[in-house]
Amino acid sequence: MKIDRIELIHIKMILRAPFVTSMGVELDEEHIIVRVDGEGITGWGESVAEGTPFYSYETVPTAWHILRDFLIPAVLGKELSSVADAIALYDKVRGHNMAKAGLEAALWDAFAKSQNISLSKMLGGVRTKIDAGVSIGIQETPKVMIQKVEGYLKEGYKRIKIKIAPGNDLNVVEALRKEYPDLQLWVDANSAYTLKDIELFKKMDAYGLELIEQPLGYNDIYEHSKLQKEIKTPLCLDESIHSLADTCAGIELGSCSIINIKPGRVGGFTESKLIHDYCQKMNVPVWHGGMLESGIGRAGNVALASLPNFTLPGDISSSKRHYLEDLVDPEFVINADSTMDVPTGPGIGVEVNLGQLKKMTVRTEVFTL
Ligand code: OSB
Ligand code: MG
């Protein structure tokens, strides 16, 4: 396939409610939608670089720069027989995984559509439904957190992840555990702690958490191995994992026994699949993280999460969890049994609502031959 037009669309989506984490307060979410066109086919992807460099060093402007000046010129107008062909053309670009993943996702969608198969099928998916979960931001008080959890349980979510930060941790976990003795409960610190907090994490062992996500330094695999030796609750890495190599280091050093896969963080579905396959071989469960994606990115997440070793519920929730209106038809919804259907149509399997997309657009840039 020859891609002869690529469009970057900077979007800004207003969150239904502020999303509070140890990294700060989010009121809206900025991402880049990547549209590729060639041979009558349109492919869509979403780069999850955000407006701020607090989760990752990448931002919308850095991803835009890398896409415009390096990734797009490398693939535009080239004869591509697969996504791997495209990756080979820009592989010498180091880092900037979110920029790469946005373009790669659009190419995967285009190639799946050209073969008239679903993205799930093309990636090697085996599920028709994936297990959904919800990630809840820090709340004013433990009581408010209990009310939020109650609401999500009523909607059907059975796995709850809460954000924690110093001063908003054991007290909230204790209150939730008292209210819901059997709740499938995870906590995510987004790197808010250090090894000085080891006693706090030892205390967490009493609350039956299924995992603790990224408690320590965002790039520190070594210190997580020290913490894991001192506590029983499984650690899961998010921010520290940028590649298969990081995954091997994390597992083989004993830094974690569960991996959060986000295609944006690791450079796309191709690297995600390598991580998935390695973890499967090592008997390490993986789950799909979330970056408050629009329906375009969400569709890719759902497809990837249909691979066999995604055995834990993802941070994949309904379109309505974060946004009043999504930019795809149909929107993603959670089923009563906490699952989500994997689209079966060609490619991402949902239609992009161009009117809705326009409403969220901040700026666009078109690249042609
Ligand atoms: O750490 O998993 C995280 C959102 C933005 C950046 C980092 C994270 C998150 C989430 C939200 O937890 C998950 C979602 O609802 O998409
Ligand atoms: Mg996380």
TrEMBL record:
Cofactor: a divalent metal cation
GO biological process, one term: menaquinone biosynthetic process
Keyword Magnesium: yes
Top EC class of this enzyme: lyase
One of the record's GO molecular function terms: metal ion binding
NCBIfam families in the record: menC_lowGC_arch
SMART domains in UniProt: MR_MLE
Native species: Paludibacter propionicigenes (strain DSM 17365 / JCM 13257 / WB4)
Enzyme Commission number(s) from the entry: 4.2.1.113
Family matches, as SUPFAM superfamilies: Enolase C-terminal domain-like, Enolase N-terminal domain-like
Protein name: o-succinylbenzoate synthase
Annotated Mandelate racemase/muconate lactonizing enzyme C-terminal domain residues: 142-234
Alphabetically ordered keywords of this record: Lyase, Magnesium, Metal-binding
